[in-house]
Amino acid sequence: MPERKTDSPAGFLRSKAAIVVTALLAVEIAVFYTVPTKEYIPSPPPLEQFATTIGPWAMVRSMPVDAYTQSFLRADDTLMRDYAGPGNVGLFVAFFKSQRGGVTPHSPKVCLPGNGWTPESSRIISVAVPGEAAPIPVNRFVVTHDEDRSLVLYWYQNPRRATANEYLSKIYLIFDALRYHRSDEALIRVIVQMRGAADPGAEEHAIRFIQDLYQPLKRQMWERS
User: Which of 14, 96, 128, 155 could form a disulfide with 135 if both were Cys (CB 3.0 to 4.6 A apart)?
Assistant: First the structure.
């Protein structure tokens, strides 16, 4: 996980994006509390039980989430590991059993700049994963810190879909709360160090890791929930 700095996220909180997210969260909370239904709260196995070997990838390090990050995330469960295989990748998962109280996944576009990383580029790509009828949308985010450059691929996941756009994720959440009476969701993030401004191998390794990771993680989190 990128080194944490003490920079405040207050700048983002005053931005247009934050205002939009806040408005969507207000709608979500209003829907949750005004619709007379009981929310289903899943109980998947702890993320620490997730496989240490995924295809050609093997875990080389597992790290706890520090108290500062956890107090900001307020996630119900987290996983932070490094895997090695065809390349070296970092995996971070934050799982939220319910978003009824306004606790929701934080976009890496918020927390990484707040930790001292500078955004360089951002777009959404499609990643074909085994077992899915259509490619999943994934955010492709490049950040720099001094001489370091990292490729960050992340998306939001629930039992029914993967979503890259955080605003669209909030809209889906409203409909899911009404139809399925649940609001569980995970933020899944993969980070690969880049060598120089252009490093096609970094993206190749990140995408291959996602392809090997996607179904095992989905089964771990939602097969029994």
Answer: 128
